[in-house]
């Protein structure tokens, strides 16, 4: 008899755990929430200027995941008094990995088939990071890497949120295991301890999110630690408001009046965020509380809310059911289709993407996810170690294909880089800037026919910058590197500015060698010598910029220099107009005031290079043989106001070097000149182009100094 009782109790416990596991399917309000979340994200990605805050759908997903996963794990603890993480992780793997690895493998093959080779290294690296559930940390790293700011949107960029979820799935069971141990020691119910611990995590994570959003917003957006509170809010609800239990509890917890009120308030909060937030909204920070708490209110209302009836409507129920697959597949289509079609997406393309996403997501759910997850012949009844082995194998397949293709591309890039050095070192006539030399016009070298150096594949690495010349020393002072001979008796110059200054570092090296000069170089990202305030992305960047400016002015004053060279980009982190000034006036005022703080030596201001549109490299790849004609940008669009010529009129010792005639004709600025690719990204020149430009920069500097 006792054996039968124990068996009945075990069956009851399994039944309770199963109800918790199945509630995400049986609860139509959750399916409706999922449909709202994935729909808002998809529409935002397709029409970002229309549904400006649709990205908060991700935050809604986080709250749902926290609620469901915590509810399931706590139900298991309530029923059995213990937790089996391996079984939980196996269930998560069966649920998530079949679709994600298939999507990643298909995306990898599409990259190989359609994407220009110059993007392979970045895209395939992100494929690997997504496979290893670390895409969020890679993007966080790139967010604070100024030189990675021009990275193209990758087809797996959206995997950052899936990586955060997976990290939550790893961390929560470990936390609950610790709580179970503490509950046994203190005899306090595990659910009560879990609620308290989760609440503390929510408060700490939210505080950190608010702090980091104000100081380093790029990292804050992708960090697991700034997003943990969003999962935690759902988890706290699950701990305090269990959805399984006695009929009496369910009746009490699902009163109709407040359920409808909670639902309405929650939906209004989410819709306001979707419609009112934008790319300029500091996020996540405290503002993410609007969609997260809105989702929590809807979840708290439960099955009897009017929103649950919306979730029972067949189209909404279907979208909720396939929401995970729809999220996986829609973004790769958005990114990759323009490469396949060779034109930007139009309205018809976007509608086709919606239809294709829904069809592929349904097929993926119906024929991949569900069979692998439930059929005993596949992984439905397999042990955790078997699931882990198959999961690892699937991930390895993706990694082998992606990293193998990247290795081949990296090898090809090395070969092409050697070819570039060979051509440049041979100094052929009419290479690069020579083709624009008025004294050599018309300048054309038949031996260069068919050449394009550097190849677009190696363009992003064709950078003259050096770590020693960039950013800050450990003590907070600006880094200054030394070129050419050191010691007394040599002409000394200091070159300072942002990344456009350091893009000329190869020119400065050649100038130092040619003239027997000593040239010091100090550069930093998104900051140049001005007293005007620049639109920095965070308070930390603004403070760092001010510290760098003060440091280089101090170095300039104590360095006994004979000349100072300045240049900058006015397109990146533009100055903020104040006191009734126009933006252009603020640029000039800031330069004049900053230059006036420099020692009384000649100031050589190099006018900024033209800029290209973000799609320019794709145009070069598609029209390799006719780039000068097909991809040239109107001069008026390529040249921005940098204010240096106007500032030089007010600072008597300043001279401006304008090399625009080597970049542009009277009407157009081509991306390829004299068989040389001018730009490694939309705003920075290649080191190869700088090498061909050196004689003309050197001549102009000598002339400005009266030393020609």
Shape: elongated
Number of strands: 10
- Helix percent reads 55-70%
User: Radius of gyration in whole Å, from Cα?
Assistant: 30 Å
> Which structural class matches the secondary elements?
mainly alpha
Distance between the termini: 108 Å
> What does the average pLDDT come to?
91
List keywords for this structure.
708 residues, single chain, disordered N terminus, Rossmann fold, 5% strand, mainly alpha, two-stranded antiparallel sheet, six-stranded mixed beta sheet, 29 helices
Can you walk me through this structure?
There is one protein chain. The protein is mainly alpha-helical. It is 61% helix and 5% strand. It is built from 29 helices and ten strands. The longest helix has 42 residues, at 384-425. The chain is elongated, with a radius of gyration of 30 Å. It starts with a helix and ends with a helix.
Short description:
With 708 residues, the protein is mainly α. The protein has 29 helices and 10 strands.
List the helices and strands and how they pair.
Elements: H1 2-26, H2 28-46, H3 57-80, H4 85-114, H5 120-131, H6 135-143, H7 159-186, H8 190-215, H9 217-222, H10 224-240, H11 247-253, H12 256-276, H13 289-301, H14 306-311, H15 314-321, H16 323-341, H17 347-374, H18 384-425, H19 456-459, E1 481-483, E2 492-497, H20 499-502, H21 505-515, E3 518-523, H22 539-558, E4 563-567, H23 583-595, E5 603-606, H24 616-622, H25 627-630, E6 633-634, H26 635-638, H27 644-648, E7 654-657, H28 660-663, E8 668-669, E9 672-673, E10 676-677, H29 687-704
Parallel strand pairs: 2-3, 2-4, 4-5, 5-7
Antiparallel strand pairs: 1-3, 6-8, 9-10
Helix pairs in contact: 1-3, 2-3, 2-15, 2-16, 3-7, 3-10, 3-13, 4-5, 4-7, 4-16, 4-17, 4-18, 5-18, 6-7, 7-8, 8-10, 10-13, 12-13, 16-17, 21-29
